[in-house]
Every structure is written in structure tokens, then in C-alpha cells.
Amino acid sequence: MKAWITYKGGKTVLEEVPLPKMLPDDVLVESLWISICASDANKFVDLTGDLKKTVFGHEFAGRIVGVGENVNKALIGQTVVGEEHYPCLQCSSCLEGKFDRCQKEGFLGWYKSGNPKDWLRNGAFAEFVSIHQCCAKPTQGIEKFNFFPSFAEPLGNTVKMERIVSEKSGRVPETLAIWGGCGAQALYMVPYFASKGVKNFVLIYRGKSAMMYMKSCVIDLDANFYFVNSDDQQQLNRLKEELGQEDGFVSIELTGQKKLQKMVIEYASPRGKIFYYGLPAGGKKVMIPGTNMDIHTFVTGRTGIEELNLNSVKGIRVMGRDNESWEETVEALKTDGQLRKE
């Protein structure tokens, strides 16, 4: 098959490579719809860690064209969205069949799972991808509407984030601060949270062009938007007081940037909550202030720790999707697509 191979040093080349290997419970998916995630784009020019080369692409959908020996052949021909976090099959969660709770999961194109039989699996910038059958999520016809079904993956992150924020806060918060609030993931999160009832958004940004674009995207949403440069401490403090958040904001941290981490905690102080999602660029090790935990280790769940106590502020990790959020995401897309069609 053909695949775009990214090499260390920033070179990406179209090459002929062998078809992906498959385990007995895997399916082979032909890549038909592919979106490029900002995290992949960053790695094109800065392949991190021990990787010498890889095939990226983790926002995708396609058609099942082959199955492993333990998989029902009736699945061949089904259109599915790919879940890039795939199970190790050996941890306690996997042995209970809770594959979406895997403790040693792999990530297509980024790293292999904790299973010694596993390999670094290629992502969707290739003609075919092999994934565990639980990672092939039926699209239920969303591909018939006028958008890429590959968008289900990044929207799924938002759906899970909203559910976790609401559960941990006891309700949908009236006011929400988003660090990195004008970036790619925020373009999904802001309108979705607005549709769920958030009335005030403090969107903390660094780049002016991203801020201007976000402003154009939210103009018709029924909420109040406060755009603040992360260097404007006076404006940040004023909004904290004006919006009645003296106990601390409910915040989403999307940046992973070292220089902001202390500010993020202070803005949530004394008794707010921080929902960590963003990973540091370039694989850098960025510590969470007041802990011996770095952001990447915490957010990816490598230690099995779900929450941190940050001097009375709660730090909660949120990453990827689970079975519940996949179901919610597909239903949301079906509803939205049907409304636009009508």
C-alpha cells in the first residue's frame, strides 16, 4: 500500500509499504475520510522521542475491508470512524472487556501499547489501518450528511469533556475559562459548551490571528465572550471579580505551556477546578506546579491517577473518548446533520 512516511528531521515522503499486520481481534480499515489534527502537524516538523519514522493520521473514517480470525466477517463493508487509542488486551481493564479504559493503550502513529506482541501501528495517512475491532465505531449513516465523518473524533473529545466537567462540577457551569481558548480544539468546545448552557466564556489566548478567527466563529452563539491575552494579568483579575468567580474558575487547560501552568492554578484558586487536556508541544516535560507530576504523564493516564489536589484546587485529567462519549457524539452529529438537511 501507499503511505506518507514522516522521518525525523521533518521530511515526509509517499512510499510503498507492506499492508498492516493484524491480530486475531483486529479489523483492516480502508482510509476514506481523513482530517489533519494540529498535533500531527506539529510532529511533521518535530518528530519527538525515539521515533525515527512513522505514519501519522488519527482523525479518520473508512470502510472495513478485512477482519482477524476472531472477528465476524459480516463487518466487512461497514463504514466506521476510527478510535486512535487502542487497547493492550492484557491489563485488568482489558481482561474485563473494558477496552476504552485500557491502562496501557497504544496510539496510532505515536506509540505502541503495552502488549509485547504489539508494534507501532500506522495512522491513516496510508491506504489501510489495522485497529482492534472495538476501535471501529459504526457511523450510523453520518457520512451521508455534508461533512467528513472523521470530524467525529475531535468532536468526541469535546463531548467527553463536557460530560466530565458537568459531572465533577455538579452541573453545567455558568462561567468557563479556557486556556488556549482560541485554538483548534476550542473551536469544537466553545460552541458545544454554549449549546449546553454555559453563559460566560473567558477565552485566554496568545496569538491575535487565532483570536480574531474565534471571534468570527462565535458571533451568533447565545453566550458572552471575553477574549483575554494571557499576558494581561490585570484584565484576567478584573474578569475573575466581575464574573463572580472569587472562589476560582472552572477551567479547561488546552495549552500544555510551561509559562502558563502557575497562572492556570492561581486562576482556579482557591477552590476551583482545572480540567487538563492539552499536551506540551514537542514532547517537552512540563511539570504541574506543586506536584512531582508532568502534564503528559498525567493527561495520558500513564500512572492511573485521575485527579490531583493542587492546594485545594482540583486537577482532573480528560483525554480521548470512551464508549459513552462515542455514542453521544454520533447522536449529536446525526441530529445536527438532519437539522441542516431539513
Please describe what this structure looks like:
This protein is of the alpha/beta class. It folds into two domains: 2-138, Medium-chain alcohol dehydrogenases, catalytic domain (Quinone Oxidoreductase, Chain A, domain 1); 154-317, NAD(P)-binding Rossmann-like Domain (Rossmann fold, 3-Layer(aba) Sandwich), CATH 3.40.50. The protein contains nine helices and 17 strands. It has helices at residues 38-45, 92-95, 152-169, 184-195, 208-218, 233-242, 261-268, 295-299, 323-341; strands spanning 2-7, 11-16, 26-35, 53-54, 59-67, 79-82, 85-86, 106-107, 128-132, 136-138, 175-179, 200-205, 224-229, 250-253, 273-276, 307-310, 313-317. The protein has a seven-stranded mixed sheet, sandwiched between helices. Helix 7 (261-268) links the parallel strand 14 (250-253) and strand 15 (273-276). Helix 3 crosses helix 9 (323-341). The radius of gyration is 20 Å and the shape is globular. It starts with a strand and ends with a helix. This is Alcohol dehydrogenase-like N-terminal domain-containing protein. Pfam families: ADH_N.
Look at the helices and sheets and give the structural class.
alpha/beta
Share in helix = 25-40%
Q: What's the oligomerization state? A: single chain
What do we call the CATH topology of the largest domain? Answer: Rossmann fold
